[in-house]
Amino acid sequence: MGFMLPSPESPRELARALMARKDVIEAEIDTQLSILKANSCDMTTPLVDPQGFPRADLDVYTIRSARSRVIALRNDLRDVTNEIGKLLEQIYDPSLAPPPPLAPAEAAAGSGAQGEGPLLPFARVDGVAPESPAAEAGLRREDLITKFGHLTKASFSAASLQPLAELVNNNENRELQVQVLREGQDLLVRFTPRKGWGGRGMLGCHIVPYHGAAS
Question: How far apart are CA 213 and CA 215, in angstroms?
Fold first, then answer.
């Protein structure tokens, strides 16, 4: 079981909504623990007798259901608390906040809408692992990256993609928008860096510096 984030708003509004959700989860945990207490047990009370049979003096079904619910709720509470912590970091350190989303028209036009002209590619996708966050987002081998979150070619002062790696590490489980150049077309893809998808890294793709001219 998981929890659902509210619709995208400011970090303060999201934090308030998640704090309200946290209160609801904590109240329900108390309710389930009260059920266990009413049955004269807690989360660790044995439910079988020395012979391995269900205890006749306990409502085993009710207790197991309450315990299962408490475990799920505690997982939700942990996730909500972690998200609240991340939002509070954004509120007190705006530099940690993800960049604002692009409008569809801007995505279609690429970066040409900016006064400085089209953005130039600074990285190339050298490989994409199947079923990875990058693959799910539609990223392909040979895509040329022109913007990664708020990073552009001007963000890199050397032949290193360290700023990109740092951005990914700072945005685990947060959606990032990436503009790519594919066969002359500007495209916008969205994906969420995350661990535990079944492979290495949080993206599941190999990105290398690109020094050629934009096509």
Answer: 6
Contact 188, 147 (CB under 8 A): no
Do 25 and 77 contact (CB within 8 A), yes or no?
Answer: yes
45 vs 2: CA distance, rounded Å: 27
* Helix (H), strand (E) at residue 51: none
pTM value surpassing 0.85: no
Output the tens digit of pLDDT for each of the chain's 215 residues: 444 444 445 777 888 888 888 999 999 999 999 999 999 999 999 998 888 899 999 999 999 999 999 999 999 999 889 888 887 777 766 555 555 554 444 444 444 444 456 788 888 999 999 888 888 888 899 999 999 999 888 888 767 788 888 888 888 888 889 999 988 888 998 888 888 888 888 888 888 888 775 44
Q: List beta partners, residue 48.
A: 54
